[in-house]
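Handout, section 4.2: multi-component inputs.
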Amino acid sequence: MSGTAHEGRPLDAAELLRLGTEAVERARRAGADHAEAYLESLRSFTVRVNSGAIESLKQSVTRGLGLRVLVGGAQGFVSSTDLAPGSLDELARHVVALARFSTPDQANVFPTPADAGDEPLPDLELVDPALLAWPAERRIEMALALERVALGCDPRIHRTDGASVSTRDGHAALVNSSGLARTSSGTTVSAHVVPLADDGEGKQQTGWYGMVKCRLDELEAPEAIAREAARRAVARIGARQVPTARVPVILSPDIAAAWIGEMLEAFSGEAQLKRTSWLTDRLGETIAARAVTLVDDGRLPRAVGSEPFDGEGLPTRRNVLIERGRFATILYDHYHALRCGARSTGSAVRGYSSTPGIGSHNLYIEAGGESPEAILARVDRGFYMDDQGSYGFNPTTGDYSFQAQGFWIERGAKTFPVEGVTVASNSLEMLRNVAAVGSDLRFLGSVASPTLLISEMTVSGG
Amino acid sequence: MPEARSGLSGLVPRELAAELLELGRAQGAEFAEVYAERAVVSTFTLEERRIRSSEYSRGQGVGVRAIQGEQTGYAYADGFDAGDLREAARVAARIARDRAPGGPPRAFAVVEAPAPFTLAAPVTLTLDPAHKVELLRRADEAARGHDGRIHEVSSGFADSSKSYLVANSDGLWAEDRHFLARLTVTAFATEGEVRQHGYATGGGSVEASYFESQRTPEQIALEAAGVAITLLRAEEPEAGTYPVVVAPGWGGVLVHECFGHGMEGDVIRKRSSIRASQMGRLVAAKGVTIVDSALVPFSRGSFRVDDEGTPAQRTVLVEDGVLVGYLWDLLNARLTGNRPTGNGRRSSYRDYPLCRMTNTFIEAGPHAPADLIASVRRGLYCKNLGGGSVSPADGNFSFQVTEAWRIEDGRLAAPVRNATLTGNGNDAMLKIDGVGNDLLIEGSTGSCGKDGQWKPVGVGQPTVRFTGITVGGTGT
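Output:
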């Protein structure tokens, strides 16, 4: 089967493996010393609703191939959605010709079965049969329910910026000429809604809430998602600026998760090798408060970021990046591990259209002992940050400076909503200034954190 | 011949397109559209003095869209297999249900629109891999040679070609081909415990000779290295709200984010943008004129026809402070009785079009740029911005400032790091109190994200002074 059928199934894992093996053979015949094929197939469905009706319905079944070769130690890479035999031959010739323009590098080596070890790959329960059988009508009903409930939550919510439900299921296969051959499969479902609350004079406040999960029964009920989104929108009504101040700042779980996602690059072997990050040469040092343990785990059952093997076919694992405040682990893919005389941490991530790079699977700060309410009660005067702009992190310096929304805190309670401010510090200072770690760790995607209290940051306002 | 523009009419001939459009309306949808695309991207990256990877990617396929009222059905196939395309058309058609079939499309008429510019020798058709690698080597040498404190340089060269064909049930037939190229350099500097980086780019929809005659690898590299070295001695900005002067060119990302997004037809039709009720009203300071134009020569945001086949145009959004026009794609124009303005854009055949900006800029004003700085006693000069974002419904925006200078008594006093500009788009354009005469449109590097789709854009402005913007930072 070479074609695409929209309501049909995606190419299955065995078909991907066969195509991958064929691509590797063709690349070898075309002159590659070593070759690696990574293939993905994906079926996706997305419904967006607005004002009580379907706004768009999008469906597809896709597949793609990434073919990486080494010629005299130099790397070339091609990707394509065209998997017909004639196309594979052309790609194989092209990638071999292309590799000759790269610089030969002894560390360009593909992992072998010995590197991967003989441990059997675990079943991480990443495929939900119930999700595969979930009828399209029910997905549409859920999206409509998300919006309907959100609109009914408060008289000041008259409209939404839409609600959406999407599902994906698919397979991946990796084959290399050193003898590694692996496949994996997964499903995901995501749901979100964005209610808008009237704030007078044509101004609106936005609430966003949603999540992505591997399994249908792990998704919160649409009513609960809608109510939380509506609560967030309404709570912002009347938001105003505050004067500039240096105060304790509570990062909500969403905001803390966004921060650790930004910091990830500094923990990579690539940044260490190039000496381009604020954590250069700090392995083994205490870089954070003792309450902070930062983990990247590729093996959490039923988790969106889990995979049995990484983007080069090596087994994933649980890596502790910060252990009770100490910088404990650098993340490596195969290439940077060889360069640094280390072992891969199973941290190569990729899609079919890109070469592997160092990334995370399920990245999170371990839960602490304090409830978020208890943390709030500890703050006499400060800022609770629960929304932010998109740009404000410098990966070289660790400088942190984000546009923020949230609440002003007086005597342990949120007193009024705040907008029009920025919150700034430096990540190293923030890590050292973590004064409390909440007990409320919960995954809405593949990066998560409990509530964090940072003892001092600069809130810029009027 | 117009057909020769994309070379795709052999893969999706008119008879097949007509059949797909009829299938797309088989359940009674009012409108159907077929979009076919073939894109190639070539990328070389240089890190640690080595060409780390040489890459090439190819994406091709066809998307079918059916519209019924405000509802869109969309499906696509990777490739051009006729069976796959028919299946995509059938799936898209289901957005309409149980209505009489719409029948065959009107007879096709080719959209004749003049090209805003043509490239005699675009990079993709002209430069071989060895030449591109040489451009990277030159950039690497120049950045490292600039200053001994530059210890690492990463650079990349990417060029692409995209051919596309659009046909719809109203009988529109349009084809075009775009070429883009970009050279990016990131230079890392270190001195003692202090680390910084600087970033610069060049490119656009440019001739291959651009990298020799207009912006050489050396120029781009020296700019990146210069920023990195400057930032080594930068201070934290003073936190608070005070006058800000933004340099010409990429600074236009401000008007793109905090004004332009609210002018897009989807949020106007749904009235989720505050601008929906402001036609004819003063929305920017007097003297401020804001334009979106897909006709800017050699910019990434330019084209002959948009991704729905509508000819490119220049649309005035704000004239002397007054709101005079919105941006429209086909769907939102239809639903509101407006004329499409050529702003229907999509990131690939895997996405349906959205209403998007092209090249958005503030027109030149009367002031000498030096005077705009000289009149500020205490403020911030933003020489270069990084990324920015806005939440369209509530208007809150923020921008990362990659290189800034403290203004003291009308002079640039000291470099500033880690500044963020924030505010609300609803009134940001009203806070402009000086527009320079040095308009510059930056068409080499911008990409705009909306609903998960990324699209090349240009942004621009002359030097612009704001009365007060909230500046984030840790200084006091």
